[in-house]
Amino acid sequence: MLGQVADADAVITVLRTRVDAELLDAAPGLRLVANCAVGYDNVDVDAATARGIAVTNTPGVLTDATADFAFALLMAAARRVVEGDALVRGGGWQGWEIDQLLGAPIAGATLGIVGMGRIGQAVARRAAGFSMNVLYSSPRDVEAAPPGARRVELSELLGQSNFVSLHCPLVPKTRHIIDAGALASMKPGAILINTARGLCVDERALVAALRSGHLGGAALDVFEREPDVERGLQECSRVVLAPHAGSATTTTRARMVEICLEAVRDVAAGRRPATLVNPSVAPALRGAAPKEGTP
Asked: How far apart are CA 137 and CA 152, in angstroms?
């Protein structure tokens, strides 16, 4: 990667690409880092800003796809869909039994949403169709929160929710926001869903909570050390594991790439990109002369 960026004016990155000071220094002509994701915790934004380099992301476009997937994970974990699939495929199913693969009810249950941004709001709207009670944790009241959703402290959310779904950004305050203490305070039998960032959850503590029987299950689309997964999670039948596929629809991923390309064109033409995350570099972008042949 360091060799490839030496002459680059712009780079389009994905979440597994760590954009740090070393990479930025290897690209003296770099003007843009277009991150193909909503989150940009893989990019050292301060280092980029100090060098006058624009950083963009792809917000909004993947809201519905990720919310759909989060709710799909919730339902799969609650109704033990993956376990049932394995039972049938493995030839172990001997017919209907009254106590086979009993799961957790969804309709009328309480859903706790940690982070009421665009995706959290979209998940809350889906929960309304299942007559779920919605609690959310956020630094302040969210005016755009769906009707009926109630803001509470994280401790109250964890203690009252049958399902806890994470939709917060990864910042120092949310790193391991779900740790051993948080897991212990969750309602017995509750299910944890994470489509945010893997580092929001202490995976070893989660394994311990699952093995003890305190939690009823978990559904994870992101992991602490992607693509490595904590072995205990792989061994637990009550955990649904997905390969960071929250935004993986054809239209969503195509639009994410288009947004990155639009940012490249804007910066090449000396315009401010629509999804700029470090606005202090905007004056320098406007002052840059477009290169010959810029569309």
From this structure: 6
Task: Please say whether the beta carbons of 42 and 13 come within 8 A.
Answer: yes
Calculate mean pLDDT across residues 164-178.
96
Total-model pTM: 0.90
Which sequence positions are flagged as catalytic?
A: 197, 226, 244
> Residue 235 is inside which H or E element, if any?
helix 231-235
CATH of 63-241, one of 3.40.50.720, 1.20.140.10, 3.30.1330.10, 3.30.420.10: 3.40.50.720
Q: Position 233: which residue type?
A: L
The domain defined by 10-60+249-287 folds into Rossmann fold (3.40.50)
Select from 201, 210, 204, 196 the least CA-distant residue to 244. Answer: 196
Contact in structure between 272 and 282 (CB atoms under 8 Å) = yes
Q: What is the dihedral of CA 259, 264, 266, 267, to 10 degrees?
A: 140
Residue 27 sits at the vertex; the CA angle it makes with 21 and 30, to the nearest 5 degrees, is 100
**DSSP 8-class letter at 144:** T
Q: Which helix (H) or strand (E) holds 47?
A: helix 45-50
Q: What is the pLDDT of residues 60-104, one digit of tens each?
A: 999 999 999 999 999 999 999 999 999 999 999 999 999 999 999
Residue with tokens 């009810």: 105
- Cα separation, 36 vs 6, in Å, equals 20
Write 56-61 long-range contacts (CB < 8 A, 24+). Answer: 56/32, 56/259, 56/260, 56/263, 56/273, 56/275, 56/276, 56/277, 57/275, 57/277, 58/255, 58/256, 58/259, 58/260, 58/275, 59/118, 59/275, 60/118, 61/252, 61/255, 61/256, 61/259
The pair of three-digit structure tokens given for residue 127, joined into one six-digit string: 């929960």
Spatial distance between the Cα atoms of 266 and 54, rounded to a whole number of angstroms: 11
